[in-house]
Specification:
The protein is mainly β. It is about 0% helix and about 50% strand. The protein contains no helices and eleven strands. Strand 5 and strand 6 form a beta hairpin.
């Protein structure tokens, strides 16, 4: 089992920044951030291979968002800069388990464990 607790969401104006945190009971081989806007599917935003450090980003956030990890704190971060109204969503932290099937770093079905989510609202 992996427990994940997100924090850091809030309301910000367009162009602003937020940093999300995900406290994990342990890291999976892959960790990721997903988001879900009202009426839309949950989509992968950013992911990291926690061993190799490889990172993956959705095209919509490349150059604006940065995923990182702190192994000592067992915490995953998502630094979000130049936020846009279309970034408004609930953001979820995700982790793979000890045994998982890799469908892609930003594929929802790769991940076994999910946090409860944190709301991010960007106003224009």
């Amino acid at each position: 089992q992996v427990q994940l607790v997100e924090s850091g969401g809030g309301s910000v104006q367009a162009g602003g920044s937020l940093r999300l945190s995900c406290a994990a009971s342990r890291f999976g081989a892959y960790m990721a951030w997903f988001r879900q806007a009202p009426g839309k599917e949950r989509e992968g935003v950013a992911a990291i291979n926690t061993g190799a450090g490889n990172t993956y980003y959705a095209d919509s956030v490349k150059g604006r968002f940065t995923i990182s990890q702190d192994n000592a704190k067992k915490t995953l971060y998502l630094q979000m800069n130049s936020l846009k109204p279309e970034d408004t969503a609930i953001y979820y932290c995700a982790a793979v388990g000890s045994y998982f099937t890799y469908y892609g770093a930003l594929r929802r079905d790769t991940y076994n464990y999910w946090g409860q989510g944190t709301q991010v609202t960007v106003s224009s």
